[in-house]
Write a structure and sequence with these properties.
Layout (H helix, E strand, L loop, with lengths): L2 E2 H8 L2 E3 L5 E2 L1 E2 L9 E4 L16 E5 L11 E5 L2 H16 L4 E2 L4 E2 L4 E2 L4 E2 L4 E2 L4 E2 L4 E2 L4 E2 L4 E2 L4 E2 L4 E2 L4 E2 L4 E2 L4 E4 L4 E3 L5 E3 L5 E4 L4 E2 L4 E3 L5 E4 L4 E2 L4 E2 L4 E2 L4 E2 L4 E2 L4 E2 L4 E2 L4 E2 L4 E2 L4 E2 L4 E2 L8 E3 L4 E2 H12 L1 H17 L1
Parallel strand pairs: 4-5, 5-6, 6-7, 8-11, 9-12, 10-13, 11-14, 12-15, 13-16, 14-17, 15-18, 16-19, 17-20, 18-21, 19-24, 20-25, 21-26, 24-27, 25-28, 26-29, 27-30, 28-31, 29-32, 30-33, 31-34, 32-35, 33-36, 34-37, 35-38, 37-39
Antiparallel strand pairs: 1-3, 2-7, 22-23, 39-40
């Protein structure tokens, strides 16, 4: 895809300084810009690079005035960072604006879909599947029986959506994600073996939920595993059966949440966090990376450590921990002096 400076300025409501017919077909960082690329300058620390960049077009703030000659065409806007982000969003919309049904695919006779469907090759739509408008299903996606998917949803290659899953509008599901697999339900027998507990529930993703690549979300034993509106999950996260995650909570990679735990709204959970089952975590909680949470957490707490404690207490304790060898030496010296006395 190729765009001219005048076209980009029109999208961003900006002003071109230079050749309005300058064309670009790719994006680049300002220090790595080359001919045919578009970049931006928002952080003053990078101003030096605008005089050496080979990028054909650079988006800058309205108040930018060059001190030296430029090779790049400028597009002046109110906020360069926000405008570049807007352009990235527009670029993605154009990039993923696919439609039509490729071959081969399998579509059940009872499946239904709305307008502007894209269904990539080797995809599967099971019985009674319902897809809304402008749904993009990339190749090798499996969508099981009775799945309902809203409007403006993107499902990237290789994702697997098990039966009975409900997906709202505006969701994005990345490659390799598995939604609706059985929860880890097994009951020990008297002879030491395990019997499987049937997992008869489902998974519900509300509107504007993003699921990262390789993330797994288990169906409920009974009822639903629920991700509320605006939840954002990174790659390689495990969400167990009957978990509920509140609106606009964000969780970083390799976190694991055990069954039946409830997490509140607007929480931020770092990478490699482990959370035990059957606890309640409040709203606006922040959990630092690699923490282990084994208790209920009140609203607005900030936790770190394993087992996790108050972030402030953890930092105070860590000061003593790293000084522990010296403290032990002093104690031993005191004990020696006591014995001499």
């Amino acid at each position: 895809m190729e765009f001219t400076a005048s076209q980009i300025a029109g999208i961003l409501e900006g002003k071109v300084v230079g050749d309005p017919e300058t064309a670009v077909h790719k994006l680049a960082k300002i220090e790595e810009g080359e001919e045919g690329s578009l970049t931006f300058l928002a952080n003053p620390k990078y101003t030096q690079y605008i005089y050496s960049t080979e990028a054909s077009i650079t988006i800058v703030n309205n108040d930018f005035e060059p001190e030296h000659e430029l090779k790049t065409t400028l597009i002046k806007v109110e906020d360069a960072y926000k405008s570049f982000s807007k352009l990235l969003e527009y670029y993605n919309q154009v990039k993923f604006n696919k439609s039509g049904i490729e071959n081969p695919v399998f579509i059940s006779d009872s499946a239904k879909y709305g307008d502007d469907l894209y269904l990539g090759a080797f995809s599967y739509l099971g019985n009674n599947v319902s897809l809304g408008n402008n749904v993009k299903v990339f190749p090798n996606v499996y969508i099981g029986d009775n799945v309902v998917i809203g409007n403006d949803v993107i499902i990237f290659p290789g994702a697997k959506i098990y039966s009975e899953t409900l997906i709202g509008n505006g969701c994005v599901i990345h490659s390799g994600a598995i939604i609706g697999a059985d929860g880890f339900g097994f009951a020990p027998n008297a002879d030491g073996e395990y019997s499987k507990v049937p997992q008869t529930g489902n998974v519900i993703l509300e509107d504007n939920v993003d699921i990262g690549a390789g993330t797994t979300i288990d169906r409920a034993t009974l009822g639903s595993t629920i991700l509320r509106r605006g939840v954002k999950l990174d790659n390689q996260i495990q969400i167990a059966h009957n978990v509920e995650i509140g609106e606009h909570t964000a969780i970083a990679a390799q976190t694991g949440i055990a069954g039946s735990t409830k997490i509140g709204k607007h929480c931020m959970i770092g990478g490699q966090v482990g959370i035990v089952g059957h606890i309640v975590i409040g709203d606006r909680v922040k959990i630092q990376a690699q923490s282990g949470v084994g208790r209920n957490v009140k609203d607005d707490e900030v936790l770190q450590g394993s087992p996790a404690i108050s972030y402030g207490d953890y930092n105070k304790s860590y000061v003593h921990f790293k000084n522990l060898p010296g403290i032990v030496n002093r104690i031993q010296e005191i004990e020696k002096n006591i014995k001499r006395d």
